[in-house]
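Exercise (ungraded).
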Amino acid sequence: MIELYQLRWSHYVEKVRWALDFKGLPWRAIDIVAYKKQEMSRFPCAQTVPLIYDASTGVALSDSSPILRYLDEAYPEQPLLPADPVAREEAWQWMLRLDSTLGLHARRLGYTQLIMECPDALPRLFMTQPFGGLFARPVWRSLAAPVLGMMLTKRFRFDRNRQDRIYERLENLLLPLAQMLERNAYVMGEKLSAVDITLASLLRPLRIVPHFSHHPRLQGLFVWQQRLFRSHGRDAAYPYETMIEAQRQRSGAMRGRVSWMETPSTTAADAECSRAVAANDQHSVNGLSLFKAWPGYLKLRWFSGVGKQVYSPAPYLEA
Ligand SMILES: N[C@@H](CCC(=O)N[C@@H](CS)C(=O)NCC(=O)O)C(=O)O
């Protein structure tokens, strides 16, 4: 039995759940409390989720792509990576690149969208366990939401989305991928690989970011993702998707107009460098830095430069 330490809604965790299911391995999930992580502190590896502990080999490992590679090496049935060494390295580089770009940027913009439109969703994700779930209940969660919003803004620098050109860089990454997947069923080769699992999983937060979910030239990419989710029994919608959807239906509006974007974008594409490990973008937060985060949080919530537009469901959902 493999133990998977998780935050349920994490797109990096979904990569590993999908790989475990694809390989038909027995596993069980252990939900962690994000700001303590006591459940996994006994393991001598980076304290991020996903983290697995394989009782049959004694291996404890974090970081989704190394976990997928470990699973493929330890359990070669239903391979996730190509056997040919050159193709294998190419797949590995794809995975690290997607982890270091799409995974980080989509997380940033997904949380940003929740803060702008539906901050009450944050306590419902992060605070279901402490104090018997008190802060996930109505009224209490309206008190907890700004504190969590500030914490996350500080940790992931959402207030710098514009300066860091996150929307532009993601668009540059996704447009060619969308074009490629109009011609091919998979990113590499003729069957599902760890690269497809990585791309489809890490794309999920962008389903709540209208600039991407409603982008006319990205519909094919979301249709591709939807097809994979259906044929591999992945969740149709995560709780944060359902929560923001309900909020949009109530208000009839969504925040989708990125005022500073140029069409076509003139931002240069990120350089494609060869990597040994995936990058991450977490910054530490302490009491003082949290206190200093409130102007950034308020700006993000009310004056982010991402304007309101009339709510409509994403076109790919009707495809
Ligand atoms: N490159 C890592 C990224 C893992 C990561 O950043 N996980 C987040 C959840 S999405 C985490 O552990 N967050 C806890 C924290 O920020 O302390 C991977 O592929 O697993």
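Further reading is listed at the end of the chapter. For now, observe: The longest strand covers residues 253-258. The chain has twelve helices and six strands.
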